[in-house]
What we know:
The chain is α/β, with parallel strands linked by helices. Helices cover about 30% and strands about 25% of the residues.
Amino acid sequence: MQGLMMHTPLTLTWILRRGLRMFPDKEVVSRFPDGVHRCTFAELYARVERLANALRALGVKPGDRVATLAWNHHRHMELYYAVPALGAVLHTLNIRLPAHQLGYIVNHAGDTLLFADADLAPLLEPLADQMPGLRGRVLMPDSLQGRPRRDGWLDYESLLAGAETRAEFPEFSETTACMLCYSSGTTGDPKGVLYSHRAQVLQCLIAGITDNFRFSERDTLLAIAPMFHVNGWGLPFQALLVGASLVFAGSRLDAASLVELINAERVTFTNGVPTIWVGVLEHLRRQGLRLESLQQVLIGGAPVPKPLIAAFVEEYGVALREAWGMTETAPPGRPNIVTSAIDALPPQERARYVGKSAKVGPCEEIQHIDEAGRVLPWDGETMGELCVRGTGIAGAYYNNPQATAAAFHDGWLRTGDIVTIDRFGNYQVMDRAKDLIKSGGEWISSVALQNAAMTCPGVAEAAAVARSDAKWGERPVLFVSPRDSAAPPATEAILGTIAERFAKWQLPDVQDIRVVPEIPKTSVGKFDKKRLRELLQAQRAPDEATS
Length: 547
């Protein structure tokens, strides 16, 4: 027997209408190089209507893929709503990918229309003849005053000015695809993940609950995480759902600019990868500044150094909420929660459960398995590969059966992350499976090594990888970048500091601690361990070179 309940499709159009009707005067703030643009939710809605009509006039139909190559700003947000409102799919391109991968992604997705910021459009010029499926290209201004022109491109503002002011949005199933994101392609070609309207709406509802990020109408959200990366971690949708003002940082992501923006706009919540917040912490300390309004930071995308979390809490009263997620799981939104059951434990035992990477979230399930596929116990000690399933988890890769077969098994996504899970459902990411170092038959966590190194005086960042070893199979190599290039830390001092936390066999040899100007990053700000391994192959360790 079915329940006699009214069915309202959970779509992004529903969120858009809610934002207009409930919070018409809330603001979307976009920072450009020459100033700040402000518009209300009501004004945003009016522009989305015009944009939807312009898209129809350009031939966009339900199911079409429309690509963007853009920074975080209000025009990009208009596309976030106008394209899905037509039943089409918004495909956000990673601006930091090399040209050949951008061309591959556009063709693999079958994009029919492309919107690009004026300063990013040149990235695609070498590919003009290699993307035959594109029917049109639209140029968006990269400043407040500019109206750039480019041969072969339409002008965004002219399109809106010439479009009808009222739009009728079609009704469609909540399972209709709305967004398409591709992985960063650090191992092989990027893989596409197609998100449904329902998944995005549920993710917003889950993120806002009290035991998660408790978003409310009183918040001001700053979207630092790129809108091309996992749908901006959901903030462009979250803001309209709860009525929070939304701020976009644009292309200026240096620490000084971010701190100035946070204080000027009275931001209460923001996000970003750890490398962003390492820089912010150093800037605050150097300049003696405060974060006057900021309360929470969602930090993810890479392992978070525990000293970084402690410093923001103790020195600035800001909670850095570490959360786990990946392109395949929609926006990250599963921070570790200290529950009442954990609070009731004796202090020494309680410490075992605090500060984990994440917690199993609502509407999802987790397990971890060994190499034979056996499900492992939740004892907080046994390491295995994390597997997830749930409402916001992808069930396949877009148009890629080979990659799908490798990652999805029996209804579960095998994430490639090695974790421990405790009895409360908190899990600690120990490493990526490909990054674990196996020395003498025993595992060494590269994450644990690099986190320890980042507590050493004079060390800004650290990343550990394996090198081959004839005797032990693999040995750890630790790359560190100095806080002050004029006074790099001594490798002996680093080894002495981290030696207190590891068994001797887990430690790198002193010649395997390499001081480098900067740790290379991937297109989404993670440590690029593929490049570090290539560096190892090109520059053999001193003991290998003389043997």
